[in-house]
């Protein structure tokens, strides 16, 4: 976020700031990225003080971004439009199993663990209260919309997870991977290491989940 903020300040664009003693750039991401997760495509909202040509906006900001970070597009919306954060209800992750040298993991064990996990009626995730003294548990089994293991010949196993997200609750992909390992405790699953990427965000459109890119 700080990298993006610095790039915006160098871009020369007419940026809008919040009011008050400590003005802040009015930039909001649709859904914060969990620590340790990479992403191929993220969405955010930026407020400007005047209308700017979209091609000019993209070129001005792109010129200030470092290698490896690319702005793929921009669109203009009315200020009174629903925020992106209010639209997001789910996100899809791809977790690739990182195999250490000399280690062999049987994909059938991961698949078995996934089946056992999805068969559970209750998966309790602890949540701390605001003062971190009271801890309650939430059943996040309904938050798992999809859990699928992809096995491409010659490639590392990839676990695809479509999980609930948003302001009214969600579940961490790392918590889910931890619970997955618990389903096969005798398989050496404590050594399973995953590289997690957020693939896309989702919203509800006409009663169905659709990628955020298609609905806004």
Question: Overview of this structure, please?
Answer:
- The chain is α+β, with helices and mostly antiparallel strands and 216 residues long.
- It folds into two domains: 1-87, no CATH class; 88-215, Alpha-Beta Plaits.
- 23% of the residues lie in helices and 26% in strands.
- It contains six helices and ten strands.
- Strands 2, 4, 7, 8, 9 and 10 form a six-stranded mixed β-sheet that branches. The chain has a two-stranded antiparallel ribbon with strand order 1-3.
- Strand 9 and strand 10 form a beta hairpin.
- The chain is globular.
- The mean pLDDT is 87.
Task: Name the overall outline.
Answer: globular
**Approximately how much helix is present in the residues?**
10-25%
CATH topology of the largest domain: Alpha-Beta Plaits
Regarding quaternary structure, what we see is single chain
Structural class assignment? alpha+beta
* Tally of individual helices: 6
| CATH architecture name of the largest domain | 2-Layer Sandwich
Query: Main beta sheet, described?
Result: 6 strands, mixed
Radius of gyration: 20 Å
């Amino acid at each position: 976020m700080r990298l993006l903020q610095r790039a915006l300040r160098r871009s020369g664009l007419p940026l809008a700031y919040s009011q008050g003693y400590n003005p802040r750039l009015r930039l909001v991401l649709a859904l914060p990225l969990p620590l340790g997760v990479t992403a191929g495509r993220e969405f955010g909202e930026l407020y400007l003080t005047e209308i700017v040509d979209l091609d000019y906006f993209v070129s001005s900001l792109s010129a200030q971004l470092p290698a490896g970070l690319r702005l793929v597009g921009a669109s203009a919306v009315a200020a009174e439009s629903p925020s992106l954060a209010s639209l997001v209800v789910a996100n899809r992750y791809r977790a690739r199993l990182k195999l250490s040298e000399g280690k062999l993991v049987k994909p059938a064990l991961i698949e078995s663990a996934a089946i056992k996990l999805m068969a559970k009626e209750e998966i309790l995730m602890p949540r701390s209260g605001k003062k971190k003294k009271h801890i309650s548990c939430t059943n996040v089994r309904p938050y798992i919309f999809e859990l699928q293991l992809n096995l491409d010949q010659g490639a590392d196993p990839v676990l695809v997870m479509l999980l609930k997200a948003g302001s009214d609750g969600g579940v961490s992909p790392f918590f889910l991977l931890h619970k997955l390992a618990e389903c096969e405790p005798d398989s050496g699953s404590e050594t399973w290491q995953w590289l997690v990427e957020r693939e896309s965000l989702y919203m509800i459109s006409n009663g169905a989940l659709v990628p955020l890119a298609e609905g806004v």
